[in-house]
Design goal:
Layout (H helix, E strand, L loop, with lengths): L2 H6 L2 E3 L10 H6 L3 E8 L2 E8 L5 E6 L3 E2 L19 E6 L2 E7 L6 E4 L6 E2 L9 E10 L2 E10 L2 E10 L8 E5 L4 E7 L5 E7 L10 E8 L2 E9 L6 E6 L5 E5 L6 E5 L5 E3 L20 E2 L5 E7 L2 E7 L6 E3 L6 E2 L4 E2 L3 E7 L5 E7 L4 E9 L12 E6 L5 E7 L6 E3 L5 E5 L13 H7 L4 E6 L8 H4 L9 H15 L8 E6 L1 H12 L5 E5 L5 H7 L7 H5 L7 H7 L12 E6 L7 H14 L3 E6 L9 H19 L6
Parallel strand pairs: 1-33, 34-35, 34-36, 36-37, 37-38, 38-39
Antiparallel strand pairs: 2-3, 3-4, 4-5, 6-7, 7-8, 8-9, 10-11, 11-12, 12-13, 14-15, 15-16, 16-17, 18-19, 19-20, 20-21, 22-23, 23-24, 24-25, 26-28, 27-28, 28-29, 29-30, 31-32, 32-35
Helix pairs in contact: 5-6
Length: 640
């Protein structure tokens, strides 16, 4: 049967009510995620977050399967967002796993599948000590420590002894900065490099690449090799001759640079493409240095990322031939292999193995498989809209799609606003979006001004304009899609989480373009956020809005809660009650305002969830509740 005849056999059916095999429970069960990997001799370890196991992060061995026994979870809370929270070690010829326990944030150590024992000291009464980004240095672990004291947070580089066994003694290596990332020891052990920055900068605004001499486990002669308050340096990695490779946006794009120990800088690759990333999670790695001295990285457009191999001597670049179009900043290498986690419009997530000699993908180590046939998935692709001032806005469109149905009318459109706001969305398969598209609702994910992936100028468009540019860009995309006939003008809904929730709430109070909205732990009150959020983001709004309290009037003006009397669209709010980034009070304020107005709304709060939902039961509940809410507003009965 040819494809044209197949298409002709499709039934017309009300969009939103299409029956889909992708249930919320199937999505949650398949919702595991992959991030970091580490070669361990002839083995490979990686981590997985599994909603089906209460959202815990466990470590998996290629040879032995799960090696972190339940109920342990390797989850650091440094910066509240965490990052790489485990390290494989060889101690006296025995493979060992060191990890940060989610429950008390101490470092524990265990043999694979063994009973973990505490390694880091118990903090003094009234304090909380958190750890992240561990590296092995001789008989010690060096890492970042975050200390929570009464009313303040301090960070530093520390060393923990691995011998003798038991709770380790701790030494402070450096505590001169407020923020740290990427500690890396040179191959000869004589130098330590790291990234640092201070308030009010965020790591995508301005950082410094520092290096120190190492002698008898102590640091000396600390100096800055690159970066300042308006240049973002990230992901340093040492070459075989004490040269440092790193990512820097001095040219306007995060590109590949090199620096020697005397501070001589070389711009190795200059192209209008991002090689870097917003450092939301510590441990992100955009570079790896291969045994032959070549540099492994990722570059390319938002919808066509490629793994690239660079010869620093000739500056020749060779892209890897792969069907994957997006890669996480978590590259790792062994003597003859490299490893990366990627996705595409057809692949949810894969950990691939690359043969460095043939420069080919030689194996898929593990994969997050789709629970339903690929015929139910759309083909996500990048689109653009032009604002009234002529500037382009970028977005990723996931069209309503089902192998057996076509819309009996123009389909509803769900506008998604990503969080951050310094982040971006890629043109890859999203199971969460497929939950809606396979039921007849199109999804457009807007990479508004301020998003990464389009250079520093685009990223800086949100400076001083948060709550303005993001809303304008979202509306420009909506207007463009309506004008093209992609969706019905009266059936556009909007959803977003965290900073995306802020834009959702602002779009709802400042426009009449949306039939309904869904805010996941969204920011409602900028003043409260500036005074009540965690340390990492406590000065974020200095750049996004203005200095507080000097610009307090502007904070009030930009806050969605200030304009809630203009809200006329139905609204559903989702909130984790353990959220330390956007506390529940933010969602509760909007809930109360909706109730006072008599506006159709719902408030759904979840115990045990923080900033981002990890438990399968929460994922199922929130998706089904959100879809039913849209059905009530738009006039369809969803098949859950």
């Amino acid at each position: 049967m040819n494809c044209a005849h197949k298409e002709a056999m499709k039934q017309t059916h009300q969009p939103g009510a299409w029956p889909s095999p992708l249930s919320a429970s199937l999505l949650a069960q398949a919702g595991s995620s992959l991030m970091w990997s580490q070669p361990m001799g002839d083995d490979l370890w990686w981590d997985e977050v599994r909603p089906s196991e209460g959202g815990r992060t466990l470590v998996v061995s290629r040879q032995h399967g799960d090696i972190l026994k339940a109920p342990w979870s390797a989850k650091s809370q440094v910066h509240e967002y965490g990052g790489i929270s485990w390290l494989g070690l060889m101690l006296d010829g025995i493979a060992m796993l060191a990890f940060v326990s989610k429950t008390d944030q101490r470092i524990y150590i265990t043999e694979p599948k063994g009973e973990p024992q505490p390694l880091s000291p118990e903090p003094p009464a009234g304090q909380s000590h958190r750890y992240i980004e561990m590296i092995a240095v001789g008989d010690e672990i060096w890492c970042i420590r975050e200390v929570h004291l009464e009313g303040r947070v301090e960070r530093g580089l520390v060393a923990l002894s691995l011998k003798p066994a038991g709770v380790a003694s701790l030494r402070i290596l450096d505590a001169s900065s407020h923020f740290y990332a990427h500690p890396r020891v040179s191959a000869d052990g004589r130098h330590l490099a790291w990234i640092t920055w201070e308030h009010p900068q965020m790591p995508w605004d301005g950082t410094e690449l520092r290096v120190a001499d190492v002698s008898n486990g102590q640091l000396s002669n600390v100096r800055v090799l690159a970066g300042h308050v308006e240049t973002s340096c990230l992901s340093p990695e040492w070459g075989p001759h004490n040269e440092l490779y790193f990512i820097c946006d001095q040219s306007g794009w995060w590109n590949l640079w090199q620096v020697d120990l005397n501070g001589k800088l070389t711009h190795l690759v200059e192209e209008a493409s991002e090689w870097g990333f917003p450092l939301w999670q510590l441990g992100m790695r955009a570079l790896s240095v291969l045994p032959d001295g070549h540099v492994l990285s990722v570059h390319g457009a938002v919808d066509a990322r490629k793994i690239v191999r660079v010869d620093p001597q000739t500056r020749a670049m060779h892209d890897l031939n792969s069907e994957l179009t997006d890669f996480k900043p978590s590259l790792s290498v062994s003597d003859s292999k490299a490893y990366a986690v990627g996705a595409s419009g057809k692949v949810v997530s894969q950990l691939i193995e690359i043969d460095l000699l043939s420069w080919q993908v030689c194996d898929v180590v593990t994969s997050i498989e789709s629970p339903v046939d690929a015929s139910y998935f759309p083909k996500p692709h990048e689109i653009s809209a032009v604002r009234s001032d002529g500037r382009k806005v970028f977005a990723i469109l996931h069209s309503a799609h089902h192998p057996n149905f076509e819309p009996s009318e123009k389909p509803p459109l769900m506008v998604v606003v990503h969080g951050g706001p310094t982040a971006n969305s890629s043109a890859t398969l999203s199971m969460k979006y497929a939950y809606f598209t396979s039921r007849g609702i199109s999804v457009v994910d807007v990479n508004y001004g301020g998003s990464t992936g389009y250079g520093r100028h685009y990223r800086n468009l949100l400076r001083g304009q948060w709550g303005v540019v993001d809303c304008e860009d979202v509306l420009a995309v909506v207007d463009s899609l309506i004008a093209q006939g992609v969706c019905a003008a009266d059936k556009v809904v909007i959803r977003g989480g965290s900073a995306g929730g802020f834009t959702v709430l602002n779009a709802l109070v400042h426009s009449k373009s949306f039939a309904a909205g869904a805010s996941y732990y969204g920011v409602a009150d900028c003043t409260t956020l500036a005074t009540d959020t965690h340390d990492f983001e406590s000065r974020y709004l200095d750049t996004m809005i203005g200095a507080y309290p000097a610009e307090k009037d502007l904070y009030i003006a930009r806050s969605p809660i200030t304009h809630v009397n203009q809200l006329s669209s139905p609204l559903i709010l989702f909130q984790g009650l353990d959220d330390k980034v956007v506390p529940p009070s933010q969602s509760e304020a909007f809930r109360d305002a909706c109730a006072a107005k008599g506006l159709k709304h719902a408030y759904v709060a979840y115990e045990g969830e923080g900033h981002g939902f990890r438990q399968a039961s929460t994922i199922v509940s929130s998706l089904e509740t959100e879809l039913k809410f849209y059905g009530e507003v738009l006039g369809f009965v969803p098949q859950l």
